[in-house]
């Protein structure tokens, strides 16, 4: 059994603030350790379930967060950016399951460190007219490859978002949102034990997902900046709906996810100047 882990940071045990998850935050280095140990718990659970290999993709921010020297040595790590497929770089149909570690709720939802991909830059995303964030897009992309999402860890809001997309996905809430930068924490040892045991159980009960890389989907993104929306229509197939909203229609999901990752790189370049105020 081949297992793929996409590791984000906002939903990691004990982390609640930008200082915990963004360099050079005063608690970022500690956050990196916490992130690595949550991932290690999932790796241990995967091998308990009979995994023969585990690939971990560092999927947060600079994508250089996980500490290789502390990572469980049975896992292989993808680190750094840019990556053509972003949070699912390296995921192929040969994998049997995806584990989402440390995920967060989408923009506009009151969850711990909630946002969609780019902090304030993305206000809303719709996949086939349904509101979506990082959780839903990853789930849809994995499903198109025929790989089921088996597990998600994060705050209770992120867990609820995944359950709404797919009730068969096991979830582990490691904290309970009190506000966007406040949470009631599950004790660290208890959270890690739950991640390990739930991973093992989830991988022992995988659903069958049929790959569908041909079915097409529509994606719409509303940006905070009109400047981003003005640049993206230069990409073939992208249309502008209004000053801040773009859409792309009838695109197979793997291609759509890769195209969205290109949107993020354009948006990063366009918004690289400090705010004018």
UniProtKB/TrEMBL annotation:
Q: From which domain of life does this come?
A: Bacteria
Q: Which InterPro entries match?
A: DppA_N, Peptidase_M55, Peptidase_M55_sf
Signal peptide annotation: none
Can you say what this protein is called? Answer: M55 family metallopeptidase
